[in-house]
Amino acid sequence: MVGCVYMAVAPLLVLMTGAALAVETCSSNPASELSSLDDEQLGNARTIVETTAAFPPTSSSSRAAVIAVATALQESSLRNLPSGDRDSLGLFQQRPSQGWGSPEQLLRPRFATRVFLAALVTVPGWSVRPLTEVASDVQRPAEGLEGAYARWESLATALASRYWRTTAAGGCQESVVASGQVAYPVPRGLAWSDRHNWGGAGEHWSAWHTGTDFSLPCGTPVYAVTDGEIVLEPGPDWFGDVLVQVRQAPGGLTTWYAHLQQVDVVAGERVAAGTRLGEIGDVGNATGCHLHFEVHLRDGGIYDADNVDPSAWLATSLARGQER
Q1: Is the Magnesium keyword given for this protein (predicted)?
Q2: Is 18 helix (H, G, I), strand (E, B) or coil?
C-alpha cells in the first residue's frame, strides 16, 4: 500500500469547497496512475463524476465525486464486476442482500452511484472528515480494511477534477432544455416524437390511453419534468418492472414515467427538473420502444379526474416561460 500522510489539501481539492481542507491523502503519483487506467476504468470514473454532479444533494460538491471514485477504485478497480465476495456486485461491490438494490440495478453504474451517494450524504460530517473514514462508514468493510480507501484519494481527486470541469461546463451532458422549472421528459431536440395520444382508445387499453407516448429508440434518456420526490411502484405490471413517479408534494402535481428499461433513481430521492431518471424501454404493455408519460395534478390514480392531457400541459407550462 502507498504510504499515506495527513496534510493540507492540494490545489485540486480547493475546487471542491472553495477552501483548503485538512484531509488524509497519499504520496502517490496521480499522473502515472491516470495513464495506467484503460477506457473501461476511465469511462466508469466519468459516469461516477457526472452522476454525482447531477445528483441534487451532491451537485455542488465535487468532494462527493472524489469519495465515490476512491471507493470504486478500492472496491472494484473501477470495473463493473458481475460478482465478488458473497453477493457483492458492480463498481461499489454492493450487496442485494443488504438492501442496496437488485442484482440488475447494481450492475448499472448510474444506479449504483446514486445509491452510494444517497448513503454518503447521511454520514455525519461526510464533506469534511477524512475520506477513508467516510467511505468506511458507507461501505462497512471487513475489520482491518477501514483505512484502505485512503491510498486512492490522489488518483480519485485527479479523476474528479478532470471530469467535474467537463460536466460543469456542460460539454458532455445530454441536452434537455433551457432554464426554468419544467423540462421535457426526453432530450429537447426529440420533442417531435410526442404522439399526442392521450385519451385514445384501442385494444391495448382497458378504458382509454391515460398518457402520451414519446416513440424513440430504447436507451434514450428520460428526464424528470418537474422537481419532486421519487416514488417507485414495483411491477411487473402494464408499466414494466417499475413505474417512476416524481411527486412535488403529497396530493400535489405528480408525473409518471412508464416502460423504462433502466431506472437510475431511488425511492425517496429529491430530484430537480431535468434530472435523468432512466432509459426508454420496451417493457410491460408495450408494442415497441417508447416512453409513456402522464400528468396528475393532485397525485391521483390512473383514471382519476386529475389525469390531464400531458402534451397540452407541457405546452402551457412552456408557454409560461417555465421551461428548464
Answers
A1: no
A2: coil
The distance from CA 135 to its chain's CA centroid, rounded to whole angstroms, is: 19
- Collapsed DSSP state (helix, strand, coil) of residue 29: coil
3-state secondary structure of 9: coil
* pTM attached to this predicted model: 0.54
- Are the beta carbons of 239 and 259 closer than 8 angstroms? yes
What pLDDT digit, counting tens, does each position of 18-27 carry?
Answer: 333 333 334 4
Whole-angstrom Cα Rg for the chain: 21
Interatomic CA distance for residues 115 and 108, integer angstroms: 11
Name 24's bridge partners: 6
Selection from 13, 55, 43 nearest residue 277 by Cα: 55
Beta bridge partners of 5: 25
CB 257, CB 185: distance < 8 Å: yes
pLDDT, one tens digit per residue, over 20-61 is 333 333 445 566 678 889 999 999 999 999 999 888 788 878
Closest CA to 91 of 101, 172, 125: 101
